[in-house]
Amino acid sequence: xxxxxxxxxxxxxxxxxxxxxxxxxxxxxxxxxxxxxxxxxxxxxxxxxxxxxxxxxxxxxxxxxxxxxxxxxxxxxxxxxxxxxxxxxxxxxxxxxxxxxxxxxxxxxxxxxxxxxxxxxxxxxxxxxxxxxxx
Length: 135
Hints:
Number of strands: 5
Strand order of the largest sheet: 3-2-1-4-5
Radius of gyration: 15 Å
Order of helices and strands: EHEHHEHEHE
Mean pLDDT: 90
Number of helices: 5
């Protein structure tokens, strides 16, 4: 059983987020803290100039609302939206907040990923805590 669980959430169509959420609830102690996190990737400067000014703030707000709704379905869960490179940002957050388990969903990989997605691979290789990858 785990006391502090991080569940990074990707809203890609090919990822099923119900599996990691069910596992988090099943593996959590009664008083465990579960954090549902989404990492907003940085948009290159050349691309951001073509987007409406309010795009990023509106997108971040919509993501936060979606995560808050998901967190409301789990006991002791909270939602967090951060910015950066997904793999590195998950690890940085984990280093600061010391989860004892990270539960990641992995997409069906192509040849470029071989066995896991690139974010899952990065987290599995470098995390200082247990990592569970769900397909």
